[in-house]
Amino acid sequence: MKIGAARWLSLISYLGLIAWVMAWIVFLGDVPRERISLWLLLFVPPLLVPLRGVLYGRDKALIWAALIGLAYAVHGGVVAWSDPAQRWLGLIEAGLSLSYLVSASYFIRWRALAAAAV
After folding, report:
1. Angle of helix 87-117 versus helix 2-23 axis, rounded to 10
2. What percent of the chain has a predicted confidence (pLDDT) above 70?
3. HSE-up of 46 (CA within 13 Å, CB side)?
């Protein structure tokens, strides 16, 4: 039960982070219209690299996605700290990435413990 909950929370957090970064760049942030494509090319592909493995629940992909997600947690924290106008955007980004980090970590650990107990 808790393994499945951690799995679903990690998937929702990771896919939510991808959607949030794209929505922030395209709709919510103050990115100039002529630079939207550049920002999307800089911020979205790192999240897409381990996506297939994350969807299949592969441990290495989950770990790599967590490491990549740490950069987004730092980015969200820096934006929340330095830009009062976009503070809520940064807090949501940091929250999603940290939620993924914690839930993916518990998913990997609990699944390994369950496999060792069998």
Report:
1. 150
2. 100
3. 14
Torsion-angle region of residue 35: left (phi > 0), alpha (psi -120 to 50) or beta? alpha
Q: Is 44 helix (H, G, I), strand (E, B) or coil?
A: coil
HSE, CB side, 13 Å, CA atoms: give it for residue 39: 15
Are 110 and 75 spatial neighbours (Cβ–Cβ below 8 Å)? no
Residues in contact with 92: Cβ distance below 8 Å, sequence separation at least 6, in sequence order: 20, 76
Q: Kindly report the pTM of this predicted structure.
A: 0.93
For the stretch 33-88, pLDDT in tens is 999 999 999 999 999 999 999 999 999 999 999 999 999 999 999 999 999 999 99
Both tokens assigned to 102: 């914690």
Helix, strand, coil percent values for the chain (each to nearest 5): 90, 0, 10
pLDDT confidence of residue 29: 86
